[in-house]
Amino acid sequence: MADTRTYTLNNGMKMPVVGLGCWKLSADVAATQVYEAIKLGYRLFDGALCYGNEKEIGVGIKQAINEGLVKREDLFIVSKLWCNFHHPDHVKLALQRTLNDLGLDYVDLYYIHFPLPIKYVPLEEKYPPEMYTGEEDRRNNIVSEQQVPILDTYRAMEKLVDEGLVKSLGLSNFQACLIQDLLRGARIKPVALQVELHPYLSQERLVTYAQSKDIQVVAYSTFGPLSFLELGNSAAKDVTPLLEHEIVLNIAKKHDVTPSQVILRWATQRGIAVIPKSSKKERLLNNLNSDKALTLSDSEMSDIFSLNKNLRFLDPWDWARLPGFF
Ligand code: NAD
Q1: What is the H or E stretch that residue 250 is in?
Q2: Environment class of residue 53 by beta-carbon count within 10 Å: exposed (0-12), middle (13-18) or buried (19+)?
Q3: When you count CB atoms within 10 A of the terminal residue's CB, does the N or C end of the chain come out lower?
C-alpha cells in the first residue's frame, strides 16, 4: 500500500498531498472505486453534493471501515456546498443530505463550491442540483441568482464547525480579492482554496497570495484539457493534450516516469495538493506515487511554467446563464 505525504493545514489538521477526485465517477462504479482506492492507499476523497454520487462513495467508505482496512479518522473526506444552498437557512440542509448520503457524522473539509449563489430549489425537486433554478427558468434557458453575500453563507458554515459536523472550511473557485474580503469577516479561517490549476493555467499570483495567508491550495483538473474533452469543450479540443506535450514527454523520459506524474509533481513541488480522478487501478497507483516518483529541477519547473496560457476550461460564465452577466 502506498503511503502519502500530508500537508499541515492552518488549523493543525493533516491533508494528504494526493487524493482522489470524485467528479464524473459514475454512480454504478463509485462504491467499488472508492473501496479499491482505499485499498491502494488513498485517504482523501474529493466529493461534492452536485457530483450526485455521495451515497455510493459512502458505501465504499463503509465497506473499507467495516473490513478494518481503515478507521474513519484515517480518512479525509471532502464535500462542497452547492450554489442553490447559499442562503443561511439552507446551508445545513445541504450538508445534512451530504452526511446522510455518505453515512458519516462529519466531513473533514467543506468548501463553498462556487461563489455563485443561485435560487434555492429543494433537493426533492432536483438531485443532483446542477445549475437549475426551476422549470420556468429552464424553459427560458436562464439561471436565477440569489442575493446572498458570501460572508452570510460562510458564517452559516462556521456554525457547522461549531456543531462538529464539519472539521474545516474551504473556498473553491475564488479569486484573491474575494478571499481577501471574506478573511476580513471570517471567524474561522478557511484552510484550503481549490481551483483549476494545470500547466496551461499556472495561477502563480493566486497561489502566492493563498500561500501568504497560509491557505492550502488544492489543484483540480491538473491534466488540463483532458477532463473537458469528454464534455465537448471546444477550447480543450484546440490545444495540445498536456500528457502528449513535447516538454512534458521529454521530462518524463528523462526521469523514467509517466507524463501524468510529471504534471502532478509540478504541482506538488509548488506545495499544492492534487486530486486527480481515475477509475483505472494502474493510473490510481501511478497518480498516488507521483509525489515520490521524481524531483523536478528548477529548469524543468520553468519549462513547465512556460506552457502557461491563462487558459481556463471551467468558467462559470460559460454555463451559468445569469441574466445581465454578459
Ligand atoms: P483530472 O485532471 O483529474 O483528469 C481526469 C482525466 O484524466 C480522466 O479522464 C482520467 O481518466 C484521466 N487520467 C487520470 N489519471 C491518469 C493517468 N495517470 N494517465 C492518463 N490519464 C489519466 O480532472 P478532473 O476530474 O476535472 O479534476 C480532478 C478532481 O477535481 C475532480 O474529480 C473533482 O473532485 C475536482 N474538481 C473540482 C472542481 C471544483 O469546482 N471545485 C471542478 C472540477 C474538478
Answers
A1: helix 246-255
A2: buried
A3: C
Provide the Cα torsion 89, 95, 97, 99; round to 10°: -150
> Given pLDDT bands bounded at 50, 70 and 90, which one contains residue 324?
low
The residues carrying an active-site annotation are 51
Beta strands in 27-108 (DSSP E): 44-46, 76-81
Chain centroid, CA 221 distance in Å: 8
What pLDDT is recorded for position 316? Answer: 80
CA terminus-to-terminus distance, the chain: 50
- Residue to mutate, 81, 130, 198, 227, ligand 1, most ligand atoms under 8 Å from C-beta: 227
> Residue 193 in contact with residue 170, Cβ under 8 Å?
yes
Positive or negative, the Cα torsion across 217, 222, 224, 228? negative
Is this model's pTM higher than 0.85 or not? yes
Strand runs labelled E in the chain: 6-8, 14-16, 20-21, 44-46, 76-81, 109-112, 169-172, 192-196, 216-220, 273-274
Domains of the chain by range and CATH?
A: 6-318 (3.20.20.100)
Give the pLDDT confidence of 42-65 residue by residue, as tens digits. Answer: 999 999 999 999 999 999 999 999
Q: What are the Cα distances from residue 223, in Å, to 53, 196, 204, 296?
A: 22, 10, 17, 17
Which of the listed residues 230, 278, 289, 290 should we mutate to test ligand 1's pocket, taking the one with most ligand atoms within 8 A of CB?
278
How buried is residue 124: exposed, middle or buried, by Cβ count under 10 Å (0-12/13-18/19+)?
Answer: exposed
